[in-house]
Amino acid sequence: MIHWESHACLPLHPQASFAPIDRLHAAGVDYVSINVGMDMNPVQQVMAVIAGFRATLVAHPDKYVLANSVADIEQARANGKIAIGFDLEGAMPLLEQPEMVALYASLGVRQIHFAYNRNNSVADGCHDVARGLAPLGVRMVQAVNAAGMLMDCSHTGRRCSLDIMAASAKPVIFSHANPLALVAHGRNITDEQIRACAATGGVVCVSGVSFFLGNTAPTAQDVARHAAYVAHLVGVQHVGIGLDISFHQPELNDNPPGDYDPGYWWPKSAGYDRTILRATYTPVETWQLLAQALQDVGMSADDAALVMGGNMLRVAGQVWH
Predict the structure, then answer these.
(1) Is 18 within 8 Å of 56 (Cβ atoms)?
(2) pLDDT of residue 65 exceeding 50
(3) N or C: which terminus of the chain has fewer CB atoms within 10 Å of its end residue's CB?
(4) How far is residue 303's CA from residue 300's CA, in Å, rounded to a whole number?
């Protein structure tokens, strides 16, 4: 069975090392979605990152495959390689042009959500004033569906995420989000959001970030507990994994250019300790422990395989083209 990591973060720098991706592969991951930009990153930075990451993939065809289809992922695994896709966190890099979605898709972006914690002209962030999906946002959802890209609702405001799921003609995912019922943090999602995601045929992928798991030293057991909650609420077929590990490389400065204020994007009032850099993450080796941890919370081996990749593989097969 394919093991699918729905979200991971390398430094947003063209020269970022892919050594962490090699570690994920060694831990059993077959596909990983790598972030290439957020709302605070201007287009020139996002494009430089995509160009640099694509160059790394081209330089190492023995290790990496830029996946455009489920068949690409399965073939990569058969050849001992790890398949990779890119994701965007926020609509600001789209420059208010739905046509940008297809351009990013052609460059390897396989999933997107529309707001990173804060509101923009398209959608609402989870740490901002609720307005709902803008009319432009409806057109953006249609563009995402048309481009065969996964529509993600992580970091998105609750009301706005429900609007997105109602507007989408394809299954919608949360690539890295946890149940609010278990940990009261504004980035976590309500039972209503979880049910709405499942109603689209989508998947809620559990994050491994300390803030959202409620443990300063998060473990596979914490991830499994959150996965079990989602499975109990809407069925195991709607659960996945998106550990959201940020692999910092101190020698690289990947801050956005200009006047960048981390306290705006990760407000202390919303439950962060000054900046997201205070977060801790489940270790890469969590992937080697998940199957047992999921079975320890009552899942069968087949259920665990669905959570660790089978469900996301199914949804990608329905959405990608």
Answers:
(1) yes
(2) yes
(3) C
(4) 5
φ and ψ of 189, to 5 deg = -115, 150
- E strands, the chain, in order: 4-9, 31-38, 64-66, 82-89, 109-113, 150-152, 172-173, 204-206, 239-241, 245-246
Contacts for 135 with CB less than 8 Å, ≥ 6 apart: none
What digits encode the pLDDT tens for the residues 152-201? Answer: 999 999 999 999 999 999 999 999 999 999 999 999 999 999 999 999 99
Selection from 135, 136, 173, 171 nearest residue 156 by Cα = 173
Instruction: Extract the tokens encoding 111.
Output: 């999933």
- 244: nearest Cα among 8, 12, 1, 76: 8
Rounded to 5 degrees, what are φ and ψ at 103? -65, -50
Amino acid at 76: A
Burial class (CB in 10 A: 0-12, 13-18, 19+), 303: buried
| pTM listed for this prediction | 0.97
Please state, rounded to an integer, the average pLDDT across all residues of the chain: 96
* Residue 73 contacts residue 31 (beta carbons within 8 Å): yes
Tokens 């989508």, residue located: 202
- DSSP code of 18? -
Q: Where are the alpha helices (DSSP H) in 41-115?
A: 43-59, 70-78, 99-106
Start-to-end Cα distance in the chain: 21
Domains of the chain: 4-319 (3.20.20.140)
**Phi, psi dihedral angles at 237 (to 5 degrees):** -70, -5
Taking the C-alpha atoms of residue 34 and residue 45, their distance in angstroms, rounded to an integer, is: 15
